[in-house]
Structure formats: C-alpha cells, structure tokens
Amino acid sequence: MTFVPTDAARETDAQAALQTAFAPQSVAIAGVSPRTTGWGGGQMFLRAIRNLDRVPQVYCLNPRGGELDDGTPLYRSLAEVPGPVESLISAVPASAILGLVDDAVAKGVKVIHLFTAGFGETGSDERAELESEVLSKLRQAGIRLIGPNCMGVHSTRGGVSWMDDSGSTPGHVGMLSQSGMNASEVVGHGARRGIDFSNVASFGNASDLNEADYLEFLANDPDSHIVLAYLEGIRNGRRFLGVAREMSQRRKPLVVLKGGLTEAGSRAAASHTGSLAGSAQIWDAVQKQGGFMPANSVEELLDLAVTIERMPGVSGPRCAVLGGGGGVSVLAADICDRNNIPVPWFADQTQQVLREFTPVAGTSIRNPLDAGFMLEGDKMETALRAVADDPGIDWLMVHTGADGGGPRGRQDDHARQMAEGLAAIVPKLSKPLAVVIRQARTGEGFERGLDLQHRLNGHGIACFQSIDACALAVRRYLDWQQR
Amino acid sequence: MTFVPTDAARETDAQAALQTAFAPQSVAIAGVSPRTTGWGGGQMFLRAIRNLDRVPQVYCLNPRGGELDDGTPLYRSLAEVPGPVESLISAVPASAILGLVDDAVAKGVKVIHLFTAGFGETGSDERAELESEVLSKLRQAGIRLIGPNCMGVHSTRGGVSWMDDSGSTPGHVGMLSQSGMNASEVVGHGARRGIDFSNVASFGNASDLNEADYLEFLANDPDSHIVLAYLEGIRNGRRFLGVAREMSQRRKPLVVLKGGLTEAGSRAAASHTGSLAGSAQIWDAVQKQGGFMPANSVEELLDLAVTIERMPGVSGPRCAVLGGGGGVSVLAADICDRNNIPVPWFADQTQQVLREFTPVAGTSIRNPLDAGFMLEGDKMETALRAVADDPGIDWLMVHTGADGGGPRGRQDDHARQMAEGLAAIVPKLSKPLAVVIRQARTGEGFERGLDLQHRLNGHGIACFQSIDACALAVRRYLDWQQR
User: Fold this and answer.
1) Which residue spans of chain B are classified as CATH 3.40.50.261?
2) Minimal Cα–Cα distance from A353 to chain B, Å?
3) Is B405 close to A165, i.e. CB distance below 8 A?
4) Residue A404's pLDDT is what?
5) Inter-chain CB proximity B334 and A264 less than 8 Å
6) Fold of B7-146
7) What is the 8-class DSSP label of residue A167?
8) What chain A residue is nearest to B328 in terms of C-alpha separation?
9) Cβ–Cβ of A297/B94 closer than 8 Å?
10) Theoretical Cys-Cys bridge with A471: which of A339, A345, B25, B466, CB 3.0 to 4.6 Å?
11) Using one digit for the tens of pLDDT, what is the confidence trace for B448-459?
12) Of A29, A405, A136, A60, whose CA–CA distance to B38 is shortest?
C-alpha cells in the first residue's frame, strides 16, 4: 500500500462514492447470462435497473461476449465497454473476482458493489485472505466497496435496485441493512403498507464501507426523512454512535433492528456476514447513548415508519379503542395496558353523546367502545368526533376485521364505505387516528383488507396489522419523542 | 322458590342440559324474521342450523305468525308448536323475555339459550333484576340457561351453531368462551389452520351454567381431545380449578386465554359480560394450581392446538431451523433463543453431510441452516434426514415465504413441490417437524400460502404463521408436558 488516506478524507470519499452508487450516470453489471428470463444475479440486477429506467448508460459483461437474447451487446470485459463506468455491480463467482477488480482499477470506476459472496463469512482463512486482497487493491486505487455478499443499493429516484417487483414510487424512508433479504422484506411489505423508500442499502460483510458510512449518508440525505436499520455487527461503533446521536439531536428518526443479540443469533450472524454481534446488555447501552428507537422484527421497523409518517402529531399515550366485539375489546384493552398505553373511561359528556344513539343491550360505550355499527354511515362522524374531543384522550385506535359473514358484495361495500368515511372525517378530528385491520382468514378477506389498507394509505391514515403492533409502535414513538 | 336442589344434583343436571343443547332432537328459535336473507339473530341461527342439517325438528317463532319467504311456518308462540321442544334459542329483545320464559316452562323445554342481551352487563340495576327474575323462573322449573348475552353452542356433530361459514368437519378440539366473537375467530381461523372442532360454547354472562359446567362437559366429552378456553370472570373458581386439575392429571390438554387481566381490560370485561376479572397475580396462582397452558391471544390458542394435535411427540426444545435467507436465519435464532428454544450447532457429522451438496459461498450450514435450495427436490430428504438424526436436535422448524419474485406459475410449483416433498419425507423423520409460512405481501402470496398450508394440514404437518408463534407454542407445550 503506497498511500493511506486519513480517516476524515476516507469518510468524505465514502459519501461521494455512495452518492454515485445511489444515482449513477453509468453502470456495468459483470456476470450477466444471455437469457433475459434467467435467474442469475446479473439478470436480476439488469431487470431491476431496466424496470426503473433512469440510469443513462447500462452495460452488461460476460466473458464469452456475444449478446443478450434481446440484442443488447455483452462485453467480454470492462476494457471493451465504450464509455466511462461510474459504478460496477459484480455477479461473478469469487474465483473470478481479482481479474474483475484489476479491470475496474484500469477502467477508473468509482464504486464497486460485490453481490459476489464466498469471502470471510464462510469462516475459511483462504477466503478471508481473498477478501483482504480485494480490499487492498481497491484501497490503493481509491475505489470504494459495497459488500461483499450483499444485494447492494436500491433507489427509485436513482434508478438502481435488485428488486424488480419493488414498486416505483420514490418515498422518504431510507434503510441500511446487513441482510438483503430483510431489506427486500421491508421494502416489499412497505409497498403494501404505503411506505415508499428513498435510498436503501444492503451491505453484507461491510469490509470497506460500513454501517457508519451508510448511516451518515442517510442522515444527511434530504430525501430520507426517516431511517430504518437492520444490523448484525458494528464495525465502527464510535462513528455510528456519533451519527446516531447527531440525528437524535436534530429529531431525525432512526429505528434499529439488531440481529444476533442472543447466543444463537450471534453464532448465526457470524456465519451470515462474519459479524461479531455483541450482547444484549451492550446493545442496550448503545441504544440509550444513540437515542434511537428499537425494533425487534422487520414488521416493527415498518410499524414505526407508519407511526412516524402518519401520526406525527400524537402527543400522549391515552387511547380511545373503537370497534366491534366485546371479547375483542377486552383483549384490546389488555394489550394496550401491557404496552403502557392507557385506555381510560370516557368523560361523562362523551358517554352521553354516545349513549344517544346506542342501544343499551350488548354494547359498551365506556372505552373500549364496543360498537362496530357506530363506524358506519352518519354515526361514524358523531362517534369519532365525540371521542376525539374527550379531554382524557390523546389518540384513537379503530379496529376492524376484513372477513365476516354475509355475501361478498356487502363486505366490499362495508370496507369501501369505512375507508371513504374515515378519509372524510379524519382531517376534522382534533386527535390522530390509527386503523387496525385484523388478520384475514380467507384469500377474499385478505384482498379486502389489502384494498381497505390501500384506500386508507392513499388518505394518509396509519394502518396496522394488530392491536399489539399499533400500541407498541405508538408507545415507542412517544418514548423517543419524550427523551 | 319452592325447591332448591343440592349443588351436586344441579351439576349433574347441568351436564344433561348441555348434552341436550349440543345435540338436540328438537330446537325452537324465537325471534325469526320472515326474510331468510335477513341479518337478525333468529335468521343467523336458523341458517347455521339448516346448513348443518342434523337436528330432526327445527321450529321458528315470530309473534306475528305467518311463514318464512320459503314457506316454513312461523309459530306465534311455543304453545302453537306441534311437537316437543328440547332446546330453545331466544333472539327476542330483553323486553319480551319474561313471556317467552313462561311459555318455555309451560312447554317443558330442557335448556334455553339467550342470545338476548341487555341484562346485568349493562350496569343497570333494573336490568340486573330482570336477569335475576328470568333465572329464578327457570330454576323453579328446572330449566338450565346458556347465557344470556352470548352466541350459544356450536357442534358440527350435533347440528347446532351460530356460524353459517364455519366449515362442517367434526373435529377433536373443544372450546368454551365467554365471548362469541372470540369463539367465532378461533373456529374461523381454525378452519384455515386445519383445526376442526367438536363442541364449542359461547356463554356470555354465565348467570346459570358457568365456566365450570362447560369445562366439565368438555373434560368428559370423548370427542374433545383438547380444550381451549376464553374466560373473563370466574363464577365458581373452586369447581373450575378442580376440573382443570383433574384434566391435568389425566394429561388432557387445556389452554386458557384470560381476558381482563389488566386494569383497562378488567373494566372492559365488566362492561362486556359483567365479569369481575381479577388480577394477573391471582390468575398466575390459579394457572399453576390448575396445571393448564396459558395463551395471550386468540392466535396463541390455535398455535397450541396445532402443536398438540400435530407434534405430540416433541420431546425436547433443541431446534434445527431451516430455510432461505441469512438475515431471516439470524433473527430466527434470536427469536428461538428468546423463547427458550435452543438452536445448537449441528454435530460435525451432520455438517459434513450438508456440506457435500452446499456451495461454500453465501450459505450457513451450522444451524440455522440458511439454504432454501436444500428444501427442493432430492436434496430435501437428505438434508432433513441428516438434521433429524443429529443427536443434539429434538425437533425441526422449516420456514418459508409465500411471496417471492418470478412468474406466478413457478411460485405455485414451488409451493406444491414443497408440500408434496414434505408429505413424503416427514413420516420417515425421527423427530417432529413444524413449518412456518411467513406473512404474505400480496393477495397472490396469501392465496399461495393458504394453499401450501392446506396441503400440509392435509398431511397432518403442523403449520405456523411466524417463527415467534411456533417457538412459543412448542415451549409452552413442553413446559406443560414436563410438569
């Protein structure tokens, strides 16, 4: 190694490299098989990038040359590529990696993403050495590395992705993830839940660019208003904490799911990304110092994104719970209470308003309000406004099922009417409102629930999949706000 | 009151009354509106009972007489009914209840179910008094009461139900529930999960027959091999505990979901069924004494039913976790560990077998086995048998998604092949196996997951909806076994 830049210089360099990776002017993909319907990694990236159709120049490499079945040329090597290449995606086997790296140095690429796996994470000394050699060559040339052993970057605005089914609406949630699959699940489930993404990075072994670099990028990214993270190991704890703290001071929300906090998970993380995962106790201290929100699953990451995007005005925990079903109401109250979300009785005045149009039999109007029929027609506005105006209530949770007896058409109408009703009323309410759509039993119910959720998402209304998930997310967001 | 039977006599009487209610020779439904497509309670029971088509005589009552729109006669009162009536279902308003009770006494019915609500649970003294009056009239006549304020009984074998969409396969899981909706949810979701029911009772206010009577019935019911319960209050704690303990000694599994354990839930339970719910501390002691399994949600009741029915041979907690996705594997290991389910590394010999057909890159074979491809074709049998034969492993958990990229047909094939492969291999394995089908993102994925689950259910393979749910259920079942 002839030149070792200072840490600060390397950090700036990292941010420039990530800027390029997320919105390149030119991309080359190495290891593209000729069939455009193929399932290899190269074709996966090509399909996703072509789908987004934003990168001006996309080149495909295959050592045998020739062309794709749609006539696109396959270049034998980077040297053959006619124009400049800013960003290189490698889907070649690890055995071919050193040659590709040499070509990249010669071509002057700025950033390489190695989808290629089979390095330090295998536990083999030989392969860990190969990873070091790759890194050393790249460092000498000033090329930054994403990965190895990862899916790389996804940006609808920049036109890069590994997911050809990710939807294409640019959003305001950023994500860094040491696991490509967890990132894919968050983005995929996010589409269903109305959460659109800005810039997402899957970074695997993190042998060069690490969690602190990605976090810094997203912390300063004006398109990312919220940042989600899935981490296994931490390479640079000091810098990561520094960036997290700075975000916390600016009130930019960061939610972190940490994998490998148990003994079994930690062993799995070592096999997955070669990470040293650390203990739950240490992580607890990190979290307190970093001032970010914790999540325990992929679903919880999204629950918090939904809460932050759709219920930013929630100012306290006291909840009005509304929906049909006495037993469901009892369990809902238990669940809220266990999540430290109080469900206080409504004020007398509120109860009087509700009593006016409630039959005395079979319904409770004290809170939870066990009265599904109140969420239909004209009654809905009166009931929701009365409850929202109760001085003892901070927010409203409406729960509903998507299945149910009766002919299909009636159920569809019910879902549509509920969505339209809520869309008209929610802007008039003095408090934030969340909707819980309980789990479906049938394919029809699932579709109906998706449709209801989609309509509510379209009106900016927060939707959750269970009362538990909703209560927990609101509690965590309030705890973060109140720090 | 002229005659007060002893407790023991009343208890025997209760069992005979329940026998009649679950399999009556004749039923009368009071409060049936003339339109067979109507949504009133009377029509709901009529539709469900006609659907099952097992009760020899079914009579419909309406004070205006006339007939249903399909020509069935509507009797003005019980006195007009030509034959005997063993069981009476009341869907009349509370204001008409005393007249109906007098008619029932005159007719000599054995058991009355009051779907009718609006009694003690409203908190009104006047209505609590009405409930007492009804009870007093019935006691004098020796008629037993289910409810009021409940859905009553469901028995596919006996031909009675309130659910017209409950499926109609008689099974071996019984349930008692103070909430009709929770019972409906358990039966409805049970159909999806391959759990069929024997006898189910929703019993609301429990002013006469109470939780101890229903539990005793199901404890002695040869068709009910497992009993699930949703309870709010306990009317007769001593007897309930006695029956529960006796079941525990016979190793007949009982799983109880207790609503109203928090302050908010307890208030809600008082409004719902007039129950005094008691504290979590007291309940903890009851549970220890009663020797039953706890559940915290409707889903957990079903998770335990699936575990008990499909994995009776699980003899220890040590789990082999198999499926695709490195990050998913790390989180799976964390989740298992948190549920006190160890995920130990496989023995060297097992790892050697797996290594033979695993590429070194991008997969972990230590446990979790991060190798989705191993669950395809010939590799599946070799991988599962090797893992099952590992002396450090007690049971296997296979996790899979139902969504995924690629054309629809390919995904469908994958699900079908996986189901067929598992069905052929599982009987040859030396250890029990569970399948987790992770949450779908799309309607197509949900349908595909349902199809996979349905196929696996058909082969008696245990399916769960999340790794968490699976690990928790197995842990609880083992704890119960090891008592």
Assistant:
1) 152-309, 312-481
2) 17
3) yes
4) 62
5) yes
6) Rossmann fold (3.40.50)
7) -
8) A182
9) no
10) A339
11) 899 999 999 999
12) A405
Among A332-341, A371-380, A425-434, the minimum mean pLDDT is found in A371-380
Q: Which of B118, B164, B446 sits opposite A360 (nearest CB)?
A: B118
The predicted structure's pLDDT at residue A376: 73
Q: Is the peptide bond before A294 cis (omega within 30 degrees of 0)?
A: no
Quick: pLDDT tens for B259-301. Answer: 999 888 888 888 777 776 677 888 888 899 999 999 999 999 9
Q: Which of A93, A188, A345 sits opposite B267 (nearest CB)?
A: A345
Chain B, nearest residue to A94 by Cα? B361
pLDDT tens digits, one per residue of B417-449: 888 999 999 999 999 999 999 888 888 888 889
**Chain B residues in contact with A39 (beta carbon < 8 A):** 406
Answer yes or no: do B361 and A94 touch at CB < 8 A: yes
- Chain A hits for B297, Cβ within 8 Å: 331, 468
Digit-coded pLDDT (tens) for A155-164: 999 999 999 8
Q: What is the pLDDT of residue A284?
A: 87
d(CA A301, CA A193): 12
CATH (residue range B152-309):
3.40.50.261
Structural tokens at position A205: 């072994």
Q: How many residues does chain B have?
A: 483
- Distance separating alpha carbons of residues A183 and A189, to the nearest angstrom: 10
CATH superfamily of B312-481: Succinyl-CoA synthetase domains (3.40.50.261)
As a whole number of angstroms, the distance between CA A24 and CA A27 comes to 7
Q: Which residue in chain A is spatially nearest to B329 when comparing CA positions?
A: A268
Residue in B closest to A148 by C-alpha: B362
Structure tokens at B131: 């409930």
**What are the residue ranges of CATH 3.40.50.720 in chain A?**
7-146
| Average pLDDT score, chain A | 91
pTM passes above 0.90: yes
User: For residue B199, what are the contacts with CB-CB under 8 A and spacing of at least 6?
Assistant: B22, B153, B154, B155, B157, B158, B174, B175, B217, B218, B221, B223, B224
Name every chain B residue with its beta carbon within 8 A of the beta carbon of A450: 442-443
Tens-place pLDDT, residues B170-187: 999 999 999 999 999 999
Nearest chain A residue (CA) to B150: A362
Residues in chain A: 483
What was the pLDDT predicted at A407? 43
CB pairs under 8 A between A and B: 222
Q: Which tokens is B42 given?
A: 């009377």
One-letter amino acid for residue B403 of the chain:
D
**E strands in B179-296:** 197-202, 226-231, 254-258, 293-295
Beta strand residue intervals within B401-445, DSSP E: 433-437
- The shortest C-alpha distance from A431 to chain B (Å) reads 21
- Judge: B232–A338 Cβ closer than 8 Å, yes or no: no
Whole-number Å distance between alpha carbons of B230 and B223 = 19
Chain B CB contacts of A441 under 8 Å are 188-189, 191-192
Does the complex come out with an ipTM higher than 0.95? no
Q: Give domain A156-309's CATH superfamily.
A: Succinyl-CoA synthetase domains (3.40.50.261)
Instruction: Tell me how far apart the alpha carbons of residues B100 and B93 are, in angstroms, rounded to a whole number.
Output: 10
Nearest CA in chain A to B261: A334
Residue owning tokens 């409060």: B31
Topology of domain A311-481, CATH: Rossmann fold (3.40.50)
Rg of chain B, C-alpha, whole Å = 26
**A330/B265 CB distance under 8 A:** yes
**Cβ <8 Å between A267 and B331:** no
- Closest-CA residue of A relative to B268 is A330
* pLDDT-derived band at A458, boundaries 50, 70, 90: very high
Answer yes or no: do A443 and B441 touch at CB < 8 A.
no
Chain B closest-CA separation from residue A442 CA (Å): 7
